[in-house]
Structures are given as C-alpha cells and as structure tokens.
Amino acid sequence: MIRRLILLLAVLLMPAAVHARGIEPRLVAEGPAPAGGEVELAIHMRPNPGWHGYWLNPGDAGLPMDVRWQLPAGFTAGELQYPVPSRLTVADLMNYVYESDYALLVRLKVPGNASGTVPIRAQAHWLACTDKICVPEQGELALDLPIGSGTPNRAQFDQWRRAIPQPLATLGKLQVAGNTLRVAIPLPANVAAEQAYLFPETDGVVDYQARQSFRRAGDLLVAELRRNGNAPQRFAGVLALGDGRGLEFNAVPGEVPKGGTRIGGKDATAVVWAVLAAILGGILLNLMPCVFPILALKALHLSRAGGEAPEAKRDGLAYTAGAIVGTGALGVALLAIRAAGAEAGWAFQLQDPRTILILLLLTTAITLNLLGLYELPAVGGARMMSGSFGTGALAAFVATPCAGPFLGAALGTALLLPPAGGVAVFAALGLGLALPFLAVAYVPALRTRLPKPGPWMAKLQRFLAIPMGATALACLWLLWRLGGAKGLEIGLVAVVLFSLLLAGAGLFQKKAKQTGYAATLVAVAIAALALWAMPAPHPASRVVEGAERWSEARVQAELGAGHNAFVYFTADWCLTCKANEAAAIDREEVRQAFYDGGVAVLAGDWTDGDPDITRFLESRGRAGVPLYLWYRPGKAPEELPQILTPSMLISRAQTARR
C-alpha cells in the first residue's frame, strides 16, 4: 500500500519534474556474442546528483526496475542481477537504494544460428527519487549486438560483477520466536562480519526500520530481525558485509541454534579497552563545569569533617556507588529503548525538555547553595551515606551532556555488546567519575594534604557557583531550543519560584528553624506543575555560519563533484561540541580557509535525537556526539579528534585547495 501511495504521489508530482531525468540508463554488452553461447549485458544506471534508484526489494517505499525485453527469435534473457544496495531513510521510511552509478547484469543466451548484428531492445520502467520528490521514468534500452568473437570489455564488467552478491550454495534456516525472526546463514567463522546487515529479498516479512542484531554460532551467522508478518516458508536475502561485498542466501524453516557470541562482543580485548576508556573518560568528565563543582563540594565536605579515615572511606564508597548506579541505570534505560526498536544514543534523555527542566532546577538549587542562600543540613551515619550516594547519582546525571575524549568509542562499543557487557561499560563510566573522590577518601597522603578549614572555603564556594550557574543558563537556552518560547517561560517561572523557596528556607535556617520537609514538598509541587505544563519538543535546527544540513546523499553529491567535505555532528546539550564550535569551527579564518579550498561544511544536529544521525553514529561505532569527519574524493573518511583546533581544519582546507 505504501508503495502504491508513493507511486501515486510520483505521478502527481511528475509535471514539476518532466524536464529533468533523475537517472540516465544505457544498455551495454561485455563484448560480441558467440553464436550458441552467452554474453553478459549491463543496464548501466547513472543517477544525477541527489537522485537515487531502488533495489529489487525497495524497503518501506519505492519500486524496483521493470524490464520487458524485445528480442529476436531464439534469444532469451535471464533474470536481472542487482548489486548490493545501501540504506537511506526518508520521512522515517527505510529504503534500499543506489545513490551513485550502478549496473544491473543479465545473461543473454544466443541461438546457434545467429549471425551478423542483431537488435536487442527492451522497454524499461524505473522510479527515480530525491529526498523530496519521486518521478516514474521510462525509456527504451537499445543495443546493436554483433555476433562473433572480439575483445570483451572485461575490466568494466568485472568491476560491476564484484558488486553483485555471491550466492551461497548451502540453505540457511529460519525460525520464529515471538516477534523475532531468526535466520541462520552458513558463513565460515573466519569471514569477518562486524559490519553485517541483512537486506531481505522477501517482502513484507520483517520490519525494515528495526535494528538488526547478529551472533556467531560456529560456521553460522545468526541474524535476529523484528518480524512484521506471517512466518514465511522460504526467506531470501543478501547479507552485506560492510565493504561492498554481499552474499545471497536462501533459508527454509528449521532449527536455528541458540547461544553463540554476539557480533562485536567476541573480542575480550575490545571489551577491556572499552571499560578502560570509559573509566578514563569518566575521570575527565570531572573537569566539566557542571561536574567539577560537585567534586569540589565533596572535597570541602571531607575537609570540614577533618579527614577522619573511617568516615571518609564510607563517604567515598557511598559516592562511588551512587555514580556507578547512576550511569548504570542510564545505560540500562538506553539499552532497553534500543531493544524496543527505537534509535537512541548516549544522553538520549536530554532530548526531552522535561528532563532539561529537572536538570535546570537541580543546577539552580546547587548554585544557590554555593552562593550561601541556604545550607544543606549536616548529617552523619546512615543519612550521610545516603546523601553521598545521591550526590554521586546526581553527578552521573548532570555529566550526560558531555561525551568527551575516550567516551565516544567506549560507549559505541557498549551498544554492540551483550546487555551485561554494555551495562558494565556504562558502570565503568560511573567508576571513573567517582575515582578522584574515592582516591582522596582512601589515600591518607591525599587526604592529609587537603587545606585546613577556614574563610577560604566560603570564597571557593562562591567561585564554584559561576560554572554551575552557567550550566543553569545553558539549560534555560536548551529549554528554549527544545520547547520554544513556552518552554522557556515555564522554565523561568519555575526557576524564580524555586529560588524564592530556597532563599526563604535559608532565612528560616538562619533563625534556627527547621523547614526541610515543608520546603521539599513545595519544591516537588513546583517541579511537578512545571513538568505537567511543559510542551512537547519541537527544536529549531541551527548550524554554524557557512554550514548546511548533513545527509549521506549530500556528502556523496559533494564528493561526486570533486569537493572535500567537513562533517560535524553536534547537539545543543553537548558542551564539548559547543566548545569546539566556538574555538575551532565558527571562526572567520576557518570559514575563509574552507571557502578558498572549496570545502563543503555539513552539520548534523542531534539535539532532538534525529534517527538518521543515530543510525549513522552507530555505523561509525559511536553512541553520542561530537563526531568530526573529513571526506576526500575517492578515500575513506578521516575521523578527527574530539578536541579540534583552528590549525587542524585550516591545514586540511589548504591541502584541498592544492
């Protein structure tokens, strides 16, 4: 039904594009045709920039090519052989397409009595689309084929043949388990399949947009797909291996083995490195402006307490437990969302204005505490432990806008691991976040070096209020970006009421009156009312000056035109992204170098969790932003460091100009 609607829409829009053909076809032969033999023909399709054609199963929308041959007597044409396609999401529809030149191959049988030159003709119909318009196109394919011997066009056809998936002789097995279709594909264990993707030839069986997972079971590769129809009696598809190669297979109902090693999780060394990178990345997160004040406050707490070993150790353990549970819980939630089929990445919760509102109120409360408008009650024993646990969890929550050095690859690996391994990597992030305070709590030499209590503490607290207050202002700005003017108004009113409440509680504290329970109830009421009134997210995309919106099709178009391209993926809640944009990307000398070098600048705004960007980040082994890529025609993209400098970009732009 979707395809019929797409075709109808294409017909309605055809007058607007009647003067422009999206894809240019031509029919060519590998060489002269031997009498009584066979010759390879190719329908060479050449999409114009921005256009694409469709595979034999177009996916959620589109139409495959239809060819009706008009051949001399005795000649017969085989079935069309399609090259391995690529994926393209348009309007939340998963399409299997070709965005650059491709060729459909067909074997032509020649009768023994053929001679001279014979006319080979065909009427072809195909659908050509951009991301905004589809046009049904048609034309006559014509070739005058000489019969005899001669020099074949072997090099060109060998290149096209390499793009055709190779058939697997052994049948695979398929089995239905609830809403999951499991397909066991015969594949030797020594064949790399880290970037595997299954393109189903059988239509209407699986959900094309759902995430695919793979695991190894000896010489079988088991694909797990979300079922979207009745269990088929036969299932055909193409297994793409990520480097342009593909394997064509057929599967019939049968037993599919359980267990095995999930792709991406078999290398124990990779898991260890991911955990170590997460720990190191967590340590570095303590330097971020929204986290450093919390760490400093804990150090001040130790200094005020006199640095006694038993209390310090208990406090450190509780803080560490809170940080580990906090990042681990966020990891569990992220993995559960992805298991349900949604595209999500690290800091997914910050794509919702209600979460930003909670973060805004928390950072406001911490800022006012640092300014001395009210005091958190001093507690001991179990209550101190619970307070430290909550502080650790709070630090984990406010750290999520950041994906600094080491974290991108580590969290990307976590999403490829089995659930237990993925949660372990997220928990390791919390451990790294807590390690500095844990070291102070457990190493006497560090603890005894803490400054003695004195007036300097009040001055330090006031200073720490500056970065925390800046974080609160950033939350207000992000509320405006995600929730519009109404979201900003609700945030401002909530902040004012929250501030008046805490300032009033501080006045009662100075008079030695207890206000904890009443203040807490009113604070919860303010937060609940603001959350209830907060509108749904409707962000307005923004990129730096001189940049255009990213899409995979746009990147290919720029490369096809011979241009270098700098692609950066960002989000409004990503502090590292904003720092790089201000310090390196959005600078006059960098923009001029890009202009002089003819470098296209494309930006992917992930503020609202764009699923196209999520899938692309996942394909690069990333779970979050920032990600910076430099493309050169004919070469693999270069991944730049997560901390950029102007000279790093200018030097590459100057190379592009030469």
TrEMBL record:
<feature type="transmembrane region" description="Helical">
    <location>
        <begin position="488"/>
        <end position="508"/>
    </location>
</feature>
<feature type="domain" description="Thiol:disulfide interchange protein DsbD N-terminal">
    <location>
        <begin position="27"/>
        <end position="143"/>
    </location>
</feature>
<keyword id="KW-0201">Cytochrome c-type biogenesis</keyword>
<feature type="transmembrane region" description="Helical">
    <location>
        <begin position="316"/>
        <end position="336"/>
    </location>
</feature>
<dbReference type="Pfam" id="PF02683">
    <property type="entry name" value="DsbD_TM"/>
</dbReference>
<dbReference type="Pfam" id="PF13899">
    <property type="entry name" value="Thioredoxin_7"/>
</dbReference>
<keyword id="KW-0812">Transmembrane</keyword>
<feature type="transmembrane region" description="Helical">
    <location>
        <begin position="423"/>
        <end position="443"/>
    </location>
</feature>
<keyword id="KW-0732">Signal</keyword>
<dbReference type="Pfam" id="PF11412">
    <property type="entry name" value="DsbD_N"/>
</dbReference>
<feature type="transmembrane region" description="Helical">
    <location>
        <begin position="394"/>
        <end position="417"/>
    </location>
</feature>
<protein>
    <submittedName>
        <fullName>Thioredoxin family protein</fullName>
    </submittedName>
</protein>
<feature type="transmembrane region" description="Helical">
    <location>
        <begin position="356"/>
        <end position="374"/>
    </location>
</feature>
<feature type="transmembrane region" description="Helical">
    <location>
        <begin position="271"/>
        <end position="295"/>
    </location>
</feature>
<dbReference type="InterPro" id="IPR028250">
    <property type="entry name" value="DsbDN"/>
</dbReference>
<feature type="transmembrane region" description="Helical">
    <location>
        <begin position="463"/>
        <end position="482"/>
    </location>
</feature>
<keyword id="KW-1133">Transmembrane helix</keyword>
<feature type="domain" description="Cytochrome C biogenesis protein transmembrane">
    <location>
        <begin position="273"/>
        <end position="474"/>
    </location>
</feature>
<keyword id="KW-0472">Membrane</keyword>
<dbReference type="InterPro" id="IPR003834">
    <property type="entry name" value="Cyt_c_assmbl_TM_dom"/>
</dbReference>
<feature type="transmembrane region" description="Helical">
    <location>
        <begin position="515"/>
        <end position="534"/>
    </location>
</feature>
<feature type="signal peptide">
    <location>
        <begin position="1"/>
        <end position="20"/>
    </location>
</feature>
<dbReference type="InterPro" id="IPR036249">
    <property type="entry name" value="Thioredoxin-like_sf"/>
</dbReference>
<dbReference type="InterPro" id="IPR035671">
    <property type="entry name" value="DsbD_gamma"/>
</dbReference>
